[in-house]
Amino acid sequence: MEMQGPVLIIDDDAKLRELLLEYLEEYGYTVHTLPSGMEAARTVREISPAVVVLDVMMPGKDGLEVLRELRGEFAVPVIMLTAKGEDTDRIVGLELGADDYMAKPFNPRELLARIKAVLRRFEAGGSTEGNGGVKTIQAGGLTLNLSRQTLRAGADELEMAATEFRLLKVLMTHAGRALTRDALMDKVWDRDFSAYDRSIDVHISKLRSLLKPYPEHAKRIKTVWGTGYMFVDEP
């Protein structure tokens, strides 16, 4: 079996760590585990995981604090584990740059599917042209670098979280077209969402905050009432 990963699991539940380690290793993943977030940044720096699975509720340094620390240094995809019904943790996690979330308890098979989906999206975001040149998307005076996962606005090159990067990529690719929330969720997350899930709005807000310091781009992302959002490529 082809080796995958590595995957870093950070959770204070020893039984869950052992279960996920055994399950993911059966599918060819190299798995590392931590019982707390205290050594998270050092471990990510050492093993360069393909994805981090991070529990929110942990003693000492909780998952949201760990996520904030990781996002300050790394672009690694992060899947958050939240308590069932804790919408606040989910929303805050998305605001801090989490790429996906799962509510406990969950089926390890679903986590495996989420890991595969996150890795597919992350790899697609870093694609390059066949001639070895860097592939970019340009619209409205902005340049999205698909290799570096950065946005060029004026003279600045802005680092981006993975989810906001994929969302802006979809919007810029369809510049001038209104896209529904459902369409954006399908393209960005590659899975069905509840009709009442407003996760996309959180990420749109973060993109607008990213562009706000640039007056010529501050209104690039337009709300189309009753439909969704549109990237405006004209002045």
TrEMBL record:
Q: Which residues form the Response regulatory domain?
A: 6-119
Question: Which GO molecular function entries does the Swiss-Prot or TrEMBL record give?
Answer: phosphorelay response regulator activity; transcription cis-regulatory region binding
* InterPro entries noted in UniProt: CheY-like_superfamily, OmpR/PhoB-type_DNA-bd, Sig_transdc_resp-reg_C-effctor, Sig_transdc_resp-reg_receiver, WalR-like, WH-like_DNA-bd_sf
Question: What are the alphabetically sorted keywords of the record?
Answer: DNA-binding, Phosphoprotein, Transcription, Transcription regulation, Two-component regulatory system
Biological process terms in GO annotation:
regulation of DNA-templated transcription
Q: Which residues form a coiled coil?
A: none
A Pfam family matched in the record: Response_reg
- 4-aspartylphosphate carried by residues: D55
**Which regions of the protein are recorded as binding DNA?**
134-233
Could you state one GO cellular component term attached to this entry? cytosol
Query: Where does the OmpR/PhoB-type domain lie?
Result: 134-233
Does the entry feature the keyword DNA damage, yes or no? no
Question: Does the keyword rRNA-binding belong to this entry?
Answer: no
Protein name, UniProt field: Response regulator
Query: Which organism is the protein's source?
Result: Pseudodesulfovibrio cashew
